[in-house]
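Hi there, hope your week has been kind to you so far. Do you reckon you could talk me through the fold, stretch by stretch? I've dropped the whole record in just underneath, so have a look:
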Amino acid sequence: MLRYFNTEGSCNPNEHYMVRLDERVEKIKRLFVDRKKYFVINRGRQYGKTTTLKALASYLECEYVVYLLDFQKMSTSSFADEFIFSKALVEKLYMALCDLVLDNKEELQRLLLDFQKGNADMGLNELFVCLSNLCKKSTRPIVLIIDEVDSASNNQVFVDFLAQLRGYYLERETTPIFHSVILAGVYDIKNLKLKLRPDAEHKYNSPWNIAADFDIEMGFSANQISAMLEEYETDNHTGMDIQVVAEEIYQYTSGYPYLVSAICKQLDEKILGTDGFETMQQVWTRAGVARAVRIILKKNPPLFGHMTKQLDTYPDLRNMIENIIYRGKRIPFSPEEKSINLGVMFGFLKEENDHVAIANRIFEMCLLNLFMAQEAGSDAFTQGEIDRIQFVKDKRLDMDLVLKKFVEYFCDIYGDNDWKFVESQGRKLFLLYLKPIINGVGNYYIEAQTRDARRTDVIVDYLGEQFIVELKIWHGNEYNERGEQQLTEYLEYYHQDKGYMLSFNFNQTKTTGVKQIVVGGKTIVEAVV
C-alpha cells in the first residue's frame, strides 16, 4: 500500500508520509530521559505530541522499560476518588506490561495483580508503595509516559497523584521510583492547578515544580518538510520544485505539524483535475498550496473550532489578537501575562522579535475570517457585497477599481470622523469591504513581517494572481515617500511590477482620491482617504 498524508490521529512512517523524528527523539532521550528528568510536553492541539511519544517509547525500549499510558482512555469515573483512581492506574500499567518483553515479567504482573485484588481502602499511599516496589524489582529503569493528561485536568485526585510523585522524586536516591516521567497535553501543570483552585493565592502554585523545562522544537522546519516531500516525490514523480513547495508550506504553517500534513493531503488527494491544476506538476506549486489553504479554511477542521472556543472562553485573549491583526499593535512578549501565556499554550501565539505574534499565517487567516464573519452585518461588509459584481472581469480582479470605490465609500460615510476613529478602525473597514469581494474565490492575509501600528501589507490571492496592498497611517510626506520605496522593495521580493497603497490621512488639507505613480520601475496605485 502506498503511503499517504495523515491528519487523523498519530502517524506511522510505514503507512504515512511524515517528517522523520529520529533526531528529535534522540535529543529527548539524551537531554531528558538519560538525565532522569521529569518533564511536561505541553503543545497546542494536533501538534504531534502523540506521534512523538510513540516514536520515543519505541526508541527507548532497548535501554528502558517504558509504560506508555493514555488518560483519554480512562473514564471520568476513574478519577472519582483516590481509591478508584489507584486501581484504574494499576490496571493500565498491567495492560501495558502485557505487551512488554521482560525477564521477570510474571513477577511484576503478580505485584500489580496483588494490588488490584487488595481491599477497597488502598489509595494513593498504597499505590506509591506498589509503584516503588515495581521500580525496585524491574531489571531495567522504568520510564512512565502519560499522554492526554488534560483528561484529568479537572480532578483533584490527579493533582494529589502529582504531589505524591513529586515527593517520591525528591527521595529517589533512597526510595526506588520511576527513572523518568513524561506528561503530555495542552495544559501545563500550573494550569491544572489554576482550574482547580482559581483563588489568587494558589492559582500559580504547581504540584509538580520539579519538572524540567522542555524546550525542544516540536514544529517542522522548511528543510524537514523538504525531506518529507523528497520521499513523496520518489514514489509519485510529480516534477515539483521541492524546495519551493516546502518553503511555501512553511510560510503558511510555520511548521505546525497538523497544518503541514493538511496542506499536503489536499495537494495529494483533492486538487488534481480542478481548473488550472490538470497535472500533478501544476498541483505541487505555490498556486496549489494557496488553493489547498483555501480548502482547509472552508472545511473548518476541529483545530479551528477549538481556537474559536478558547477565544469565547477568554475574551481578553480575543481582544489582544484583534489588536494585533486589525491595528498592528506591538505587544511585548511576557509569558507571565495571562492572555499571552494562554495563547502560547493553546498554540495560537508565539514570541517573535520579543513581541507577541500569531503562531502562523493560516491561523491568522482563520481568525481574520472569524472576525469578518461576525461583522458581516457591518456597513463596510455590506457595501463590499453590493459593489462586488463590478470588480471581476474575465475572472480577474480589478484592484484599481476596488481602491477607487473604497475611497468613495469611505469619504462619504466616514470622512467626518476624527483621527482616533480612523487610526483604530480604518484598516479594519478596508478588510471588511474587501472580504465579500474575494469571498469563496480568493484568499487574503496580513504579512506579519511588515505589520506595525503605522503600516500593514495585505497580500490578496485571487485565482492565482497576487496583489500587494499596503495600508498605512499618514505621517507626513517624508514617511510616505519612504513607504513607497519600501513597497517597491516588497514588490521586487514577490516578483510583482504593480502594487497598491491605501493611506489614511488626518490632514485637513489632504487631497483624497486615487493616482498612479512610478517608483523604482514599479507602478504604484496610491489611494488617499
